[in-house]
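User
Here is a favour to ask of a fellow structure person. I am asking you to supply a protein in sequence and structure-token form. Please set it down just below, with no commentary around it:

Assistant
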Amino acid sequence: MLKKRVFQWFTSYLALVFALPLAPLIGASSQVRKGEMAGYLLVPHDKVPETYNAGFSLYVAAWPLLQEYPGRRFQTGLFGTWMHAHYDTKPTRRVYSDIEGGLGWWRDTRFATETPKFIMGGVALNFVAWANGPGAGKGRDWDQPKGKYGVAQLSPWVLWPPDGLNLKQGTCGELFGYGYLPLPLTTAKSTTAGKDVPTGNNCWTLFLNTGNFKGPVAFFTPYFFSRVTVDDPNLAGMFLDSRPSGPNRALQMETQYIPSVQATDEKGDTYARIAPTSFPRGPKGDTTVVHRVMAYNKKALWDAVEAWFEGGPPASGAIDPRASVVHNFPGRGRATWRIYDRSIPREERVRIAWDSFASPVAIDSNTFGYHWNEQLVTRKDTADGPLVTLPEYYRLAKEGEKAQWVVVQPEDVPAETGLAEVSFSRPPAEPSQPYVTPDDPESCWKKPGPVAGPFQAYPGDGSVVTYYWYRFADQPALLNADLTDEERESLQKRVEKLHRNWQKDRDYLAPPKIGKLADIDPALIVTPPPGLEAGYVPIATRQAAGE
């Protein structure tokens, strides 16, 4: 009995670590080796003038990449971008910092489903901290926040869970519109945390355009980026709190792990199989993944909002298309996806023959996608929507010194490899630990604390989100943003203006020219309690598995 229990524990552990159920492999060939597929899908797009340095927006397709969620080792983003600070001359030292979030799945996702979530993904200097949304960042130790106070909630209508912003379950190919533009919500400071180093007033604000919500949601506090300059004043003025954004950003899909298996037959030929991987299919069979990538200058929004805050007429919040430019797609693209097991040195990992079944196309000058080789991919109509499933089986082929994984049909894979017996179903996993915030009555979560709650929301990932309503300036992120009481009160008045004038049912980002908009999980669209309509925001304090 003890041996049986040890074996059961060990197999469950391996299934969790390697994100593949072990049981189906027991009856398969003993030579089956677990591996992964990883790499990038690269999307070239034309450059725009450097003067469009005040943010960006785009529409990206959201869909279930894998047929079944493969466990917590699964990490991949859907198509997205990296927004770095723009410099007149290249820095002489490594100062990596950016905003690089988007749709996807991550190893620290606790309540994952096949439907992707969205994170903000701000990165402080060389990853010393990152901020994924209000109350979400690097690690879960509140004694070492590392970015968990880096994002302030702005919208009174969207609840942001710490595990990421949920899309409506079953989203399959709809377009999720988002972008970041700076708003002058705070004022520039000549000192930071009492030190003689400046902090700018670029409050990089996430704007969404979805089917059930439109407008600003949350923003990175300038202090999130400038905090590192307190210890290293030579870095002052180097980050997005004060720098403009680089307008010409990489556009890619970054995949860090898709499950795969490999085996070698008696002839010495090596075969691989990947977990069923799909892309959304349009009415004509092609796939749209990115639409209308735009860059802005400060006339698009900043100037009107700044004038409003200084006593001028209210700014509508609509981003001025005359101060924007659209990146064109030439229709080229490249893939670096490789199949390998981790014992293989990085330089020896072999690419798949992506071009044999996928052709990058500019569906129009503002839309990028793929055309598929119908003989190698599989069309599939699911309950969520139409999909194209990529080839599952590959053979390692060598031509001279060059090797690649070429597509083979399932019936051409020798049965002795055991690959057909492998299951990529969702593995068993231990219950997800809850996200919790500090409960100390002296903490910033309790002093001055919320004004209403608790309330609960039930998103489609099976979790329960507990939240309270805080006065905007009293939310924990702003109590940790190096702002004086006077500065917070000034910020409070500005946000009350926004809440009264900027509603959630009109366009801020220009709408897409094609397709249908994705929805945020309806459970996360909330309504302020009576009397708290302006100047108050919902803040999640706990997220746990539902019963």
Observations:
- The two ends are 31 Å apart (CA to CA).
- The longest strand covers residues 251-264.
